């Protein structure tokens, strides 16, 4: 298997915006809230854009090529990561995701630890990012039932370039006016606890209070929004580690002329173009790159190069 460009699965919701419609062709869609740019999740699978595998899902191609293309770090079982671009024209619900043990037991799924890299934010944009006050489980339940939960959450003002690492169990919400890239475990399990009284098809969306009480970390948070590493100037490109955790590593690449990369046997690579244009080339593959493009580079591919002027999110296990 060689590197492949992917066609994302596009999602629309009641809170989605219009900025991703400028990037992707969402025919018949009122908005594009999420673009699942790397996904083997059955709720929205990425497909191969061109070449010998054109039209097939990434999952189908991976199944044909064996687990070596995922790398030595890849845990057994389903494909481990899901990467999205998210455009929030309105506030997302206040929600929480379970960890692996709870998700396996109750949802037959991975848990969901995630990280957000903010690409754009309105002047007054905010995140809900953990708890402001420490509550007992019973106090948490009462705050949800009494509609006073928002008085206990931690709100943080955000800007483009901020990085929010959201371990499973962290209460959170993306605020209106934010465009971001999200790297997460491959899970679609969300426990919603507050939704601003909105209606979908004339009815309130479901809440998941019992599950949220089970999994939410109710200790106050003071987590930073700073990237994990400093920006390094490497001549033809700049690089910066955004997040490094036990499940994935996110790196920003700002290519000014050329970047030389290497895909070893330890992990596959995901490349998502956040801005600009350029080209990708390795020993057997070459294609153009533009904003919104997503590339899967199999483990063991070896040397590859990217040329042009573009900003990319590079993710590995």
Measured by DSSP, the beta-strand proportion falls in 35-45%
What is the C-alpha radius of gyration, as a whole number of Å?
20 Å
CATH level-3 fold name of the largest domain: Jelly Rolls
Number-wise, the strands total 23
The whole-number mean of residue pLDDT values reads 96
Runs in which pLDDT lies below 50 for 5 or more consecutive residues are none
Determine the CATH superfamily of the largest domain.
Answer: Jelly Rolls
Order of helices and strands: EEEEHEEHEEHEEEEEEEHEEEEEEEE
Shape: globular
Query: Helix- and strand-based class?
Result: mainly beta
N→C terminal distance: 19 Å
How much helical structure, as a percent, in the residues? 10-25%
For the largest beta-sheet, the strand count, sense and barrel status come to: 10 strands, antiparallel
Walk me through the topology.
Elements: E1 4-7, E2 9-11, E3 34-38, E4 47-48, H1 58-65, E5 81-88, E6 94-96, H2 100-107, E7 114-121, E8 126-131, H3 137-145, E9 153-157, E10 163-166, E11 172-174, E12 178-185, E13 191-194, E14 199-200, E15 203-204, H4 209-215, E16 232-233, E17 237-244, E18 249-255, E19 258-263, E20 269-282, E21 286-290, E22 294-297, E23 302-316
Antiparallel strand pairs: 1-4, 1-22, 2-3, 3-5, 5-12, 6-13, 7-10, 7-12, 8-9, 8-11, 14-15, 16-17, 17-18, 18-23, 19-23, 20-21, 20-22, 20-23
């Amino acid at each position: 298997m060689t590197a492949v460009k992917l066609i994302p699965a596009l999602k629309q919701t009641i809170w989605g915006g219009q900025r991703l419609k400028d990037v992707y062709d969402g025919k018949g869609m009122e908005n594009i809230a999420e673009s699942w740019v790397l996904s083997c999740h059955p709720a929205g699978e990425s497909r191969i854009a061109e070449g010998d595998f054109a039209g097939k899902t990434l999952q189908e191609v991976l199944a044909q090529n064996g687990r070596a293309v995922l790398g030595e770090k890849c845990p057994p079982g389903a494909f481990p990561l899901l990467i999205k671009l998210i455009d929030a024209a309105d506030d997302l619900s206040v929600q929480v995701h379970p960890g692996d043990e709870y998700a396996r037991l109750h949802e037959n799924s991975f848990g969901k630890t995630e990280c957000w890299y903010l690409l754009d934010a309105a002047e007054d944009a905010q995140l809900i990012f953990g708890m402001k006050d420490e509550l007992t489980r019973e106090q948490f339940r009462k705050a949800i039932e009494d509609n006073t939960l928002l008085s206990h959450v931690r709100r943080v003002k955000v800007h483009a370039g901020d990085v929010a690492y959201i371990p499973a169990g962290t209460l959170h919400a993306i605020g209106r006016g934010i465009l971001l890239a999200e790297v997460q475990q491959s899970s679609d399990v969300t426990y919603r606890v507050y939704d601003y009284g909105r209606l979908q098809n004339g009815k309130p969306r479901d809440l998941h209070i019992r599950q949220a009480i089970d999994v939410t970390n109710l200790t106050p948070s003071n987590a930073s929004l700073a990237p994990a590493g400093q920006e390094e100037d490497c001549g033809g490109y700049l690089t910066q580690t955004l997040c490094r955790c036990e499940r994935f590593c996110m790196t920003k690449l700002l290519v000014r002329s050329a970047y030389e990369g290497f895909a070893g046997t330890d992990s596959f690579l995901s490349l998502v173009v956040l801005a600009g244009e350029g080209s990708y080339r390795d020993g057997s593959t070459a294609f153009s790159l533009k904003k919104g493009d997503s590339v899967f580079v199999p483990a063991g591919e070896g040397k590859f190069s990217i040329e042009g002027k573009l900003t990319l999110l590079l993710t590995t296990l």
